[in-house]
Specification:
Helix 3 packs parallel to helix 5. 25% of the residues lie in helices and 26% in strands. The strands form two sheets. The protein has a six-stranded mixed beta sheet, covered by helices on one side. Strands 5-6-7-8-10-9 form a six-stranded mixed beta sheet. 45% of the residues are buried. The protein starts with a strand and ends with a strand. By secondary structure, it is of the alpha+beta class. It is globular, with a radius of gyration of 17 Å. The chain is built from eight helices and twelve strands.
Length: 269
């Protein structure tokens, strides 16, 4: 079977106060692309009033959702799956992460081996904190199991060039991404994850040049032009990777400050 995944930092779940036009655009994108798995960051407010927004979102995209609460920031993470995928176990971790980590293990049709999914949103407030968070993700990179780690890492890959416009960012924004030399962007977070065995699918498929921030409608904010949203796979899963793209369209230009990332895997029995 072909397994298609979408990862997206939605910027406050696509809502600006009572204005949900960005969410409507995001839902249209999900329904157009019909991923089997949707890994979401900034699912803000999805737990309120008995999770009414989560349930409404599930109904509109035709997927089942699992929500990891971020009690300190409200920027929840979530994982949604589509039939015939079936959940085996769900966990969340807000103790070791600035926001929250969602962890869902699922059964794949015609496969004896489960797939473990991680939706991550690493801390925006400096590389030292992100390295600590990444240490909890590094130990999950067992090369023999099927595992997928996606999300907003607020970090630059060692595979990528210096972010465009980095030196022109206001110092208080540039400080979020600085390396130990206090001059260039830090690359240690992704380098550490790769050293642990996680495979950067964008790089593996030669499609890692496209930045994921800022979306065109959000230029001049706190981002330099860079790829900070990643699809990482265990070595066992990376062997099945077929496609990777950053979805850059007029709709995604304005739906969030991040562009969504799509990848697919051919899961032969």
């Amino acid at each position: 079977m072909k397994l298609t995944i979408l990862s997206y930092n939605t910027l406050f779940a696509g809502r600006d106060g009572a204005d949900d036009r960005r969410m409507v655009t995001q839902i249209a994108l999900i329904n157009e692309r019909r991923p089997d798995i949707f890994l979401m960051q900034e699912a803000k407010g999805f737990e309120a009033s008995g999770a009414v927004l989560l349930h409404a979102f599930e109904a509109k995209i035709g997927m089942r959702g699992f929500l990891a609460l971020a009690p300190r920031t409200g920027q929840n993470t979530a994982i949604f799956i589509r039939d015939p995928l079936q959940p085996i176990a769900f966990e969340s971790d807000s103790s070791n992460f600035h926001h929250a980590l969602a962890i869902l293990t699922i059964a794949l049709p015609r496969s004896l081996q489960p797939l473990t999914l991680f939706s991550a949103h690493l801390c925006p407030n400096g590389a030292a904190i992100r390295r600590r968070e990444a240490a909890y993700l590094a130990v999950q990179a067992d090369p023999d199991r099927l595992a997928l780690l996606t999300g907003d890492f607020n970090s630059v890959s060692p595979r990528d060039s210096e972010p465009g416009g980095f030196s022109n960012l206001p110092p208080h924004h540039r400080a979020r991404y600085l390396g130990d030399d206090l001059a260039t962007a830090d690359r240690s977070v992704l380098a550490g994850l790769e050293a642990a065995g996680w495979v950067d699918i964008g790089h593996q498929l030669g499609a890692h040049a496209a930045p994921t921030v800022p979306a065109a409608g959000f230029s001049g904010t706190e981002f330099a032009r860079m790829r900070c949203d990643f699809v990482l796979a265990s070595r066992a899963l990376a062997r099945h990777a077929e496609h990777y793209e950053v979805i850059r369209t007029p709709a995604t230009d304005i739906a969030s400050d991040h562009y969504p990332v799509l990848a697919s895997f051919e899961m032969t029995p």
